[in-house]
Specification:
The structure is a single chain. The chain is 37% helix and 15% strand. With 534 residues, it is α+β, with helices and mostly antiparallel strands. The strands form five sheets. The chain has an eight-stranded mixed β-sheet with strand order 9-10-11-12-13-14-16-15. Strands 1-2 form a two-stranded antiparallel sheet. A hairpin with a 6-residue loop joins strand 3 and strand 4. Helix 1 packs across helix 5 and helix 1 runs antiparallel to helix 8. The longest helix is centred in the N-terminal third of the chain and has 106 residues. Bound molecules: alpha-D-mannopyranose (MAN). Alpha-D-mannopyranose binds next to loops. Alpha-D-mannopyranose (MAN) binds next to loops. This is Glucosidase 2 subunit beta.
Length: 534
């Protein structure tokens, strides 16, 4: 009979004696008071009241299925297995007597003929072992945590002491930097003046060189134009140089040529000087490409050099003038001598640029200027070095202050994670967690690292805020949010990342084990689930 099948159980388990509590089949202990044998039964949803003999009569009367806790009659009913020795459970009442053993105490199959074995004690034993293991880990983890707290305390004191020292050395360095700044500035003023003097002398010298070159070229052009060698350049002679045509209209007329000659028929060398400016820009040598006057390094320059040497001290040695051009061509032809050394025709229209280059590099500084430069440079180096040391000390202070004020948990138990990194390699990526700093992901087979977020905050639930870390503002996700990572901490003896996943795109989840999260274990007695409901 189904109707009044009551449990009558007597179990001895885990040293505790348990006694039977009578109630209809499938009813949990917590609801026993609603099923009183000598009173009508009111459906648990209050919808109707029925005589008690309709409870578990294999006919569904209550819409919530509460009149058939021990049969499969109601589609929405729940069957309660006591599972003595293990853990009570509810199963959908459709599974009652369906031939499959669902409850470890076999009570769901009381009328199906299924050959169920009671496995509750075995399950209970296994669970107990599991719980014991967890408790053991928690215990050891908690011991480690206590150690970590001690170390963090010591570490904090050390850091505070270090901060004091570094702050003192910062003061010393600041004074040093200021003193060296004065030394540097004092040395730089005469250095600047001496360099300016030297530059000015070089500028003046270059102007002289250019002028001499221009003169030499003028003389050579005069000779070239004076075809009949009568000592003057005539209108006709000038006309032979069509490139000089002022309006470049294709006809270089007599009057145009005369205009260039200052309105006269011909000019001698002296008068040529006064009209040279009208000619020199456009003039193209007849002896192109080799004989335009004066290509770099040609004889006029030689003269120039002599002039320079005459005019000046050894400060401006001869070699300085053509040196740069030598350098440029050296690679092409080491054998090239000065005779071969001609400016390419293209450069002739670009007289200015050519001239700028022709004077070569600035001559070396005289001894006195060089000594001032060396002195100032030494002062600069010393100043820079002191400034660098000051910056380093300031960095150190910033880092120490940051570390000292960081929230490393209620007793600084998480401080040991600072400046550490932990990796986990999956099929595709190497994940890296650097606590309180950043999380990243790097493809295993090459490719650049992607930031999955930088330290944001502790983000656990209110009553356990230190159980979750949040890293945010990582690399932007294509058409998505910036990457971010949640790190869930669980208690363990080791410090290790145990898993990573991406529950939604670009939002990562890491499981991280650390002793710092272990709680003081509740005193462990039987290790068995507290209440054994019968
Ligand atoms: C990369 C990785 C993945 C991420 C996609 C999003 O492939 O960072 O984790 O889902 O980008 O485009």
């Amino acid at each position: 009979m189904v109707k009044f099948s009551h449990f009558v159980l007597l179990l001895l388990f885990g040293g505790a004696m348990t006694v039977e509590v009578q109630r209809p089949r499938g009813v949990p202990l917590s609801k026993r008071q609603f099923y009183e044998e000598d009173k009508p039964f009111t459906c648990l949803d209050g919808s109707r009241t029925i005589p008690f003999d309709r409870v578990n009569d294999d006919y569904c009367d209550c819409p919530d299925g509460s009149d058939e806790p021990g049969t499969a009659a109601c589609p929405n009913g729940n069957f309660h297995c006591t599972n003595a020795g293990f853990r009570p459970a509810f199963i959908p009442s459709s599974r009652v007597n369906d031939g499959i053993c669902d409850c470890c105490d076999t009570t769901d199959e009381y009328n199906s003929g299924a050959d169920c074995q009671n496995t509750c004690r075995e399950l209970g034993r296994k669970e107990k072992e599991e719980l014991q293991k967890i408790a053991e880990i928690a215990k050891e983890g908690f011991m480690l945590k206590k150690q970590l707290i001690q170390e963090a305390k010591q570490g904090l004191e050390d850091k505070k002491a270090k901060l004091g020292d570094v702050q003192d050395s910062k003061k010393d360095l600041e004074a040093k930097v200021e003193a060296l700044r004065t030394v540097k500035e004092t040395a730089e003023q005469p250095e600047k003046e001496a360099k300016e003097r030297h530059l000015k002398a070089w500028e003046d010298q270059k102007a002289v060189i250019r002028m001499e070159k221009d003169k030499a070229r003028m003389a050579a052009v005069f000779l070239e134009l004076d075809d009949d060698a009568d000592g003057s350049v005539s209108v006709a002679e000038l006309q032979s140089h069509s490139e000089l045509d002022p309006d470049s209209d294709g006809s270089f007329t007599e009057s145009e040529a005369q205009g260039l000659l200052g309105g006269v028929e011909k000019v001698d060398t002296v008068a040529f000087e006064t009209v040279w400016n009208n000619i020199k820009e456009k003039y193209v040598s007849e002896n192109q490409p080799n004989a335009d006057v004066p290509p770099a390094g040609e004889s006029p320059q030689e003269e120039t050099r002599d002039t320079v040497s005459d005019n000046d001290s050894e400060n401006y040695p001869d070699e300085d003038i053509p040196e740069e051009e030598d350098d440029e061509d050296e690679e092409e032809d080491d054998e090239m001598d000065e005779e071969d050394y001609k400016a390419p025709p293209a450069m002739q229209t670009d007289e200015k640029t050519k001239d700028d280059d022709e004077e070569g590099p600035m001559p070396p500084y005289d001894q006195e200027t060089q000594a001032l430069i060396d002195g100032a440079q030494k002062a600069r180096d010393e100043f820079n070095e002191a400034e660098k040391a000051l910056r380093e000390v300031e960095d150190q202070i910033r880092n120490l202050e940051k570390e000292i004020s960081f929230d490393f948990g209620p007793s600084s138990e998480f401080a040991y994670l600072y400046s550490q990194c932990y990796e986990l390699t999956t099929g595709e990526y190497v994940y890296r967690l650097c606590p309180f700093n950043r999380v990243s992901q790097k493809p295993k087979f090459g490719g650049s690292e992607t930031s999955l977020g930088t330290w944001g905050k502790w983000a656990g639930p209110e009553d356990n805020i230190y159980s979750v870390m949040k890293y945010e503002h990582g690399t932007g996700c294509w058409q998505g949010p910036n990457r971010s990572t949640i790190v869930k901490l669980t208690c363990g003896k080791e410090t290790v990342v145990t898993s990573t996943s991406e529950p939604s795109r670009c939002e990562y989840l890491m499981e991280f084990i650390s002793p710092a999260i272990c709680q003081e274990p509740a005193s462990f007695d039987s290790g068995h689930p507290d209440h054994e409901e019968l």
